[in-house]
């Protein structure tokens, strides 16, 4: 597990440079005392590992900019990809406050030659806009949701895709969460496109921290949402991380078909394929304990497999530790 004694650690993402695994994570000082205050003090930290178990913290990747800027409140969740010329791109959420004190989120990026020293591009490249996405002007949600960019190369070689946590401008308030979408020819200029899912009476208020992957030949979408932000029909499941079987990495995605991959004690599930043997693992951050208090920290890898048409966490060796380990509390396991 990766955690810091003096800071809360929560959302995170990975990069693999072929030699080391890189973990980028949000963190904020425990001196704030209130864990809910961490969101407005978030910086992007960085750690490296050879085995996905033992992590070494290195220099931070990003901090918020000076006012006024689109990221002058905090730097939030993103993803990291490498361009054909070798340049690394770290896409991230920039958070700022509107005049009424509500949060506005936009997407920016930074570049690096070595995954260590990052240079911000400056202005945001994407933000929520009509007619496809809800903005703060609707007054129906507590923020302008447009965050958590997940960037990946088009499977057919046609540029790059970005999936975004966004909301539709119509539909039930707690069912408007959609998979936002944008496309780029070069990772620098981005074209906003319609969402890849629809709002629903069986949906979610926010489809957070999306990721797509092809696990053992089957495309799947992961996202996170807690019961308090979902439609009533979803609340009994008490899911934290959700999975949606898909026909391709680029959707469309049937959010009504989502099923829980973890309960609410684990959040922001991420899939990562181990380099040496191709095995797939799920990670998550520890969200709340049995008393409902925030915990923090990124779990060790949890093996996943397909069972009866669903992706599940399975019991077995989490990595090269020499023992069989059951999934942590919060992972929804299936018998082998």
Automatic annotation (TrEMBL):
EC number(s) in its UniProt entry? Answer: 3.2.1.26
Q: Which InterPro entries match?
A: GH32_Enzymes (IPR051214), Glyco_hydro_32 (IPR001362), Glyco_hydro_32_N (IPR013148), Glyco_hydro_beta-prop_sf (IPR023296)
The record, for Gene3D superfamilies, names:
Glycosyl hydrolase domain, family 43
Query: Superkingdom, according to UniProt?
Result: Bacteria
One biological process term from GO is: carbohydrate metabolic process
Q: Which UniProt keywords apply?
A: Glycosidase, Hydrolase
- Where's the Glycosyl hydrolase family 32 N-terminal domain? 19-225
UniProt xrefs under SMART domains: Glyco_32
Enzyme class, UniProt record, top EC level: hydrolase
From the Swiss-Prot or TrEMBL record, what is one GO molecular function term? beta-fructofuranosidase activity
| Assigned protein family | Belongs to the glycosyl hydrolase 32 family.
Would you tell me the protein name for this molecule?
Answer: beta-fructofuranosidase
Q: Report the source organism.
A: Microbacterium telephonicum
